[in-house]
Amino acid sequence: MEKLVVIKNASGLHARPAGMFVKKAAEFKSVVEVKAKGKTVNAKSIMGIMSLGLAQGDELTVVANGEDQESAVAALVELVEGGFGE
């Protein structure tokens, strides 16, 4: 299962929101990945997420495979769309 989402918060996916994203992804049993800028990274890896260098307006695709894939995608998309509370 996958869903496309656009980064809304002004500072993009810097350290704090990337940490929140990874922590949320780690709550799920599914394999969770992020596709952006032609790369695919493990959503549970802070270094992977930071390496994408995502800024406001950039698109990313949240991909999850496993028993709780729908919940994982929904939770992560909600986090991004909510601007990480910024």
UniProtKB/TrEMBL annotation:
GO terms for biological process: phosphoenolpyruvate-dependent sugar phosphotransferase system. It is found in: Cytoplasm. Signal peptide: none annotated. GO terms for cellular component: cytoplasm. Pfam families: PTS-HPr. Residues 1-86 form the HPr domain. InterPro entries: HPr, HPr-like, HPr-like_sf, PTS_HPr_Ser_P_site. The keyword Metal-binding does not apply. CDD domains: PTS-HPr_like. Keywords: Cytoplasm, Phosphotransferase system. This is Phosphocarrier protein HPr. The gene is ptsH_14.
